[in-house]
Task: inverse folding
């Protein structure tokens, strides 16, 4: 109970604030300790409601004003066999009084709802951390199911931890005895009891959760009140029982945030809002053609709620029809989107090639997950980069945009839409499972700050023939962007036919002419190569003119762990430069020059070195690839070690 | 008839939202400047001419007409129509057209496909388009062979067909596209023949007027790789016995004329099995002969009619509109949901959406 923070290494981005006081809203005479940050992991059976519990604690924490970052982690099975290790579902939340970047490497507090949850998560919990266990589940059968011959609560194997044994189920049932619920129904509220207890421990505001429960169970007021009662019982238990002698405060992260109004947001939600915003800013109706696939389905669900924005969502018969319908809508003048994950991209490849050939705007949102094949549907990976880059027949260049944090998915969606609309091209938006389900505070943008994405449809002839006749040429390009005109059906005089067969430059008529094909292939490539993307910024704070000799460069969701690791390395007095790519095709114009500036370039990726391969090929740089494909994000501490080794190599 | 459908088109649900042409149109308005590149003698020419000749009847602004196709000989069709068009990828035209039609109800969207495109590689999209009842008119050119890839058997080829890929005869049983469409909950299913322009045009007319997905199977001759595949239906003498011409409200009679002016063969229900069978009315009388009801809500009889044809000889092949029933149209329903969402929640307010209802403020 002496320390919530386990090791010095955990502490390098800020020091523990040792201030102690008593009372506050803690119990009579109970000690209140101030912490700068905490990592909590809720773990239980798939059916125990751990994701909901985590979400609620996150909302409470967000509204309190901490900076936060979350990592939901759950099996692909909806209800894996109860009480088993594969059925364990967890939710990790890192919150702080300062700016943080990751969900944290190791939990300071583990809430284990059953023996399986304890066993599956214990290896991640550092010694000295607190473990709250539901003792009611530590009976013979559940323990035997996961291979505990003796109770870990009694055999001394948890001696290195601060264990709080709490009969969560019994206490919940007892608290709800007047509600006329069956024992089974009452037991279901035990996650709210646990949430109440943790809310007390960390002084979280509770109004939001009570309101949430009453809205969620509006049609079953008995269940709503039972859950509220369990939640309050958990809070009161913390306040009264002697086992919990200390409660903790983590002050709002007022310094970490610029002025503004904030909310908590997950990657998939931010991405969905980005798409709606892009549609509004482009003044084009949004059309989503999609087929359900983990972890992208939430975007389909979210956009389906916003029909009052003119959003059409089409759940297709398969991945191919999803993108096909989107492409059809793009031909008709919609802002067209298809959402999927890696296996779906494989199926969509031919249609993406058609979109390249038709030169119509289309967003392909790939929420990457572990592969190959079905792989790890609920886990994260970045292994679709080369699929997005090259995964089509023929020379079929597609721009690629990658968000770096959950909230950044909003801006990345707008950016992808800008490129698609300006250059009349399909665009990949490469998010991943970690960004999709993770969340963080987001400064809500003022709508007037959003970019203007309006486009000009073709409205009349754009070419004069030798005899003076005015005609419309569907493949006559804008000289600057090389984009072709977007002439939508319904426009008189611009009737034209397009297709996947090679087209004659200008007229768009079928052409098998060798020189024309060569020209068209090079022109499509030149169009993508010429897309305007901002220069990459390098964070290299050394100002003594010497600078760092090592650059770490990443892309996508590794931004958080890489940046946290860079801070640790710098905290230890080392020099290291950092850059992060949002645009992977085309690369920023200054990238080659940036890479050339450093002796050593490290490329951490959640794949086997796909960006490193591209950088080596393009810039002839001896990039050092550091990879992890465990389905989990990098841990900052481990990355920091890798960076230190490279610096001193 | 020309003026009738044009005048009616504003009342026809399928066409009511499509803008009308300012002036009277002719067939040449629908011919593009592209040279037609099908093999000389191909049945596709006849269908193209029939469609180009029929389009002026609709009186629609031609910029609001779109032809979408997949891959195959017939899928070159859009290039020859002076409308908007897309020659897409193999099998996917129904999916692409679904996106277009469901986002643009002011368009008249036509899909041109073949037996390989629609029933093999694109089979999934076809059945789902039919089940959804999107406002699409699908013209399925069935020549019972792969033409563009030079003569392999197709999913409608008869069993035992000798082709380059089946030198010892094909093994797989064919689809009957009409039966398949009926089984896929199609609201409009018709069959016609490339060489019978009058019949083809009358079927197109009914398809155009149908709200929802209309599937028109067009028997089309490939004179290079499968010449004469439908000869039994075209040869005057044979056709009389082979073709059952269906007309809504008319007794299902065919064959050499009987004294009453209708065919001497009739289609009746077999009381023993409930199935349909062909009788000679001169011997068995006309009492049991079915009257064709294309609007019957149940597809059962239409399905039984589609099964009368002998797959090998094509005898007893029904042509005409087998089924034409009203069913809610996907794109109309989709649009209505958008309207009702606006009614219920008001027009979307982006700032309110982004803010949500759980925020906090940081002051400097």
Result:
């Amino acid at each position: 109970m002496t320390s919530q923070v386990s090791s010095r290494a955990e502490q390098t981005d800020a020091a523990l604030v040792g201030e102690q006081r008593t009372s506050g809203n803690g119990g009579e005479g109970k000690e209140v300790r101030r912490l700068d940050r905490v990592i909590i992991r809720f773990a239980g059976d798939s059916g125990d409601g751990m994701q909901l519990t985590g979400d609620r604690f996150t909302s409470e924490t967000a509204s309190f004003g901490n900076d936060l970052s979350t990592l939901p982690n759950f099996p692909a099975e909806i209800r894996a066999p109860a009480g088993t290790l594969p059925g364990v579902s967890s939710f990790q939340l890192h919150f702080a009084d300062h700016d943080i970047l990751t969900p944290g490497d190791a939990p300071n507090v583990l809430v284990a709802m059953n023996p399986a949850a304890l066993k599956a998560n214990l290896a991640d919990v550092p010694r000295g951390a607190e473990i709250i266990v539901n003792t009611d589940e530590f009976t013979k059968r559940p323990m035997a199911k996961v291979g505990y011959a003796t109770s870990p609560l009694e055999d001394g194997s948890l001696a290195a931890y601060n264990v709080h044994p709490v009969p969560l189920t019994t206490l919940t049932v007892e608290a709800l005895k007047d509600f006329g619920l069956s024992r089974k129904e009452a037991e279901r509220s035990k996650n709210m009891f646990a949430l109440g207890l943790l809310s007390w421990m960390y002084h979280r505001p509770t109004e939001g959760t009570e309101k949430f429960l009453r809205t969620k169970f509006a049609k079953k007021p008995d269940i709503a009140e039972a859950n509220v009662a369990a939640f309050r019982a958990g809070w009161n238990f913390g306040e009264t029982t002697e086992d919990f002698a200390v409660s903790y405060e983590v002050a709002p992260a007022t310094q970490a945030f610029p002025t503004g109004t904030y909310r908590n947001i997950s990657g998939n939600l931010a991405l969905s809002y980005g798409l709606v915003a892009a549609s509004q800013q482009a003044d084009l109706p949004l059309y989503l053609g999609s087929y359900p696939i983990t972890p992208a389905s939430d975007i389909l669900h979210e956009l389906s709620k916003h029909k009052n924005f003119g959003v059409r969502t089409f759940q297709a018969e398969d991945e191919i029809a999803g993108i096909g319908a989107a492409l059809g809508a793009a031909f008709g003048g919609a802002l067209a989107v298809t959402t999927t994950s890696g296996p779906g991209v494989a199926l969509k490849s031919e249609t993406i090639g058609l979109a390249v050939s038709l030169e119509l705007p289309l967003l392909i949102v790939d929420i990457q997950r572990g592969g190959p094949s079905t792989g790890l549907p609920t886990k994260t990976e970045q292994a679709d980069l080369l699929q997005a880059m090259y995964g089509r027949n023929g020379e079929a260049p597609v721009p690629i945009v990658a968000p770096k944090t959950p909230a950044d998915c909003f801006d990345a969606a707008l950016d992808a839409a800008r490129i698609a609309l300006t250059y009349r091209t399909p665009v990949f938006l490469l998010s991943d499972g970690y960004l999709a389900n993770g969340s963080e505070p987001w400064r809500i943008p003022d709508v007037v700050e959003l970019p203007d994405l309006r486009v000009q449809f073709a409205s009349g002839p754009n070419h004069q023939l030798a005899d003076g006749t005015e005609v419309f040429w569907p493949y006559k390009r804008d000289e600057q962007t090389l984009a072709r005109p977007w002439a939508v059906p319904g426009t008189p005089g611009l009737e034209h036919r397009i297709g996947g067969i090679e087209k004659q430059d200008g007229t768009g008529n079928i052409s098998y002419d060798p020189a024309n094909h060569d020209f068209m292939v090079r022109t499509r490539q030149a169009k993508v190569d010429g897309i305007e993307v901002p220069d990459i910024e390098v964070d290299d704070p050394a100002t003594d003119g010497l600078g760092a000799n090592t650059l770490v460069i990443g892309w996508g969701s590794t931004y958080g762990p890489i940046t946290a690791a860079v801070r640790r390395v710098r905290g230890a007095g080392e020099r290291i430069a950092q850059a992060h790519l949002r645009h992977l095709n085309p690369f920023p114009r200054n990238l080659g020059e940036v890479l050339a500036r450093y002796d050593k370039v490290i490329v951490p990726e959640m794949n086997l070195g796909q960006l490193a391969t591209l950088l080596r090929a393009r810039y002839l740089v001896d990039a050092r690839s550091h990879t992890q494909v465990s389905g989990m994000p990098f841990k900052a501490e481990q990355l920091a070690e890798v960076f230190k080794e490279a610096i001193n190599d | 008839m020309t003026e009738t459908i044009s005048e009616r088109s504003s009342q026809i649900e399928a066409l009511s939202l499509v803008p009308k042409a300012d002036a009277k149109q002719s067939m040449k308005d629908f011919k593009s400047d592209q040279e037609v590149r099908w093999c000389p003698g191909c049945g596709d020419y006849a269908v193209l001419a029939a469609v180009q000749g029929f389009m002026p009847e609709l009186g629609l602004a031609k910029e609001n007409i779109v032809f979408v196709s997949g891959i195959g000989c017939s899928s070159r069709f859009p290039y020859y129509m002076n409308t908007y068009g897309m020659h897409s990828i193999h099998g996917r035209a129904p999916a692409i057209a679904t996106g277009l039609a469901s986002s643009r109800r002011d368009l008249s969207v036509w899909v041109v496909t073949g037996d390989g495109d629609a029933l093999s590689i694109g089979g999934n999209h076809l059945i789902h388009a039919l089940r959804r009842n999107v406002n699409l008119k699908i013209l399925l050119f069935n020549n019972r062979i792969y033409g563009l890839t030079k003569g392999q058997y197709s999913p409608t080829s008869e069993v035992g067909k000798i082709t380059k890929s089946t030198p010892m005869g094909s093994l797989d049983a064919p689809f009957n596209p009409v039966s398949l469409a009926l089984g896929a909950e199609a609201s409009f299913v018709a069959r016609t023949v490339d060489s019978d322009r009058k019949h083809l045009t009358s079927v197109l007319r009914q398809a155009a007027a149908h709200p929802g997905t209309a599937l028109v199977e067009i028997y089309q001759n490939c004179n290079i790789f499968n010449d004469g595949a439908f000869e039994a239906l075209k040869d005057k003498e044979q056709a009389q016995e082979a073709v059952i011409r269906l007309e809504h409200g008319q007794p299902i009679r065919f064959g050499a004329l009987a004294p009453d002016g209708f065919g001497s063969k009739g289609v009746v229900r077999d009381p023993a099995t409930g199935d349909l069978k062909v009788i000679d009315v001169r011997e068995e009388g006309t009492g049991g002969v079915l009257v064709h009801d294309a609007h019957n809500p149940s597809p059962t009889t239409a399905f039984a009619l589609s099964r009368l044809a002998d797959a090998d000889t094509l005898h007893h092949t029904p042509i005409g509109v087998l089924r034409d029933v009203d069913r809610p149209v996907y794109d109309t329903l989709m649009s209505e949901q958008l309207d009702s969402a606006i009614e219920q929640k008001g027009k979307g307010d982006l700032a309110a959406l982004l803010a949500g209802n759980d925020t906090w403020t940081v002051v400097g």
Summary: Chain A touches chain B through 71 residues (CB under 8 Å). Confidence is low (pLDDT under 50) at residues 1-27 of chain A. Residues 128 and 161 of chain A are 5 Å apart (CA to CA). The two ends of chain A are 40 Å apart (CA to CA).
